[in-house]
Design brief:
There is one protein chain. The protein has helices at about 25-35, 45-55, 65-75, 90-105, 120-125, 125-130, 145-155, 160-170, 175-195, 200-205, 210-220, and strands spanning about 10-15, 35-40, 80-85, 110-115, 135-140, 160, 195-200. The protein is an alpha/beta fold. Helix 4 (about 90-105) links the parallel strand 3 and strand 4. Helix 2 packs across helix 4, helix 7 packs across helix 8 and helix 7 (about 145-155) packs across helix 9 (about 175-195). The longest helix has 18 residues, at about 175-195. The termini are far apart.
Amino acid sequence: MLESRGAAESGLMLVSGRPGEGKTTTVMNWAAEVGAAQLTAYPNWTPGCAMRELAAALSVPVERGYEARIGELIAEHEIPIIVDEAGYALAKNAAALERLRAITDKSGTVMVMVMMEQHYATLSRIGQLASRITWSVEFKPSGLPDVAAACAQLAEGVTFADDLIARIHHETGARMRLVMQAISRCEAVARHNGQNTISLADMKGAPLCEDFHARLTKRGGRL
C-alpha cells in the first residue's frame, strides 16, 4: 500500500495493538531485514533528541550540518524510519514527529509509527501527520494456533501438550509477551523433571505467568 501510494509524501504507517502483542519485536525484525532506522520516543522527546537518536542509528557524527547529511543518506538509500512508543511524541504538537516527517516528505521514504489506540484522538488533531497516513495495521490478540506455533518454535527440546497450550492461551489473555513467559516457566519445570513432553497436569495448577496489569485492573488500580 505504501509503495503504490499516489502522493509521495503520504508515507506514514500506523501500527497499534495491546501491550505485549509483539509490535516492537515485529518492527525490530523488519528494521533488521530492510535496514530501517529505529527510534524509541519517550516523555519530553524533543526534535533535537529525535535527530540525535536518528544520527546514532545511521552512524552520522553529530556536528555542523549533520541533519542535512541524515536527509541525504535517507534519500540516497531509501531508509525507512520506525518510531516505537510514538504516542509519547504527540505532546507539544508532535514537534519531533513533524521534524522526522519533513525528512520523509523530501525523500519519499516511509515512517512507521507504533502507538496505542488511546493516542488516536490526539493524532487525529494533528492534520499534517494524520493526513499522510496511508495504512494502519492493528495487532490482534493471538489465536490458539499462534500460541501453539510459539510453543513449538520457542520451546527447546520440550513438546507442549494440547491441554497446556490451551491453558497458556487462556491464562495469558493471548498476549505474546506473557505467552513467552509461560513457555519459559513450563520449560523450566520440564527440565527439572527430565521430561521431553509437558502437559497441564505437570504444572499442578501453578500460575503460568504474572499478569500484573490484569490483577491491578481487577483491584481498581490498588496494590
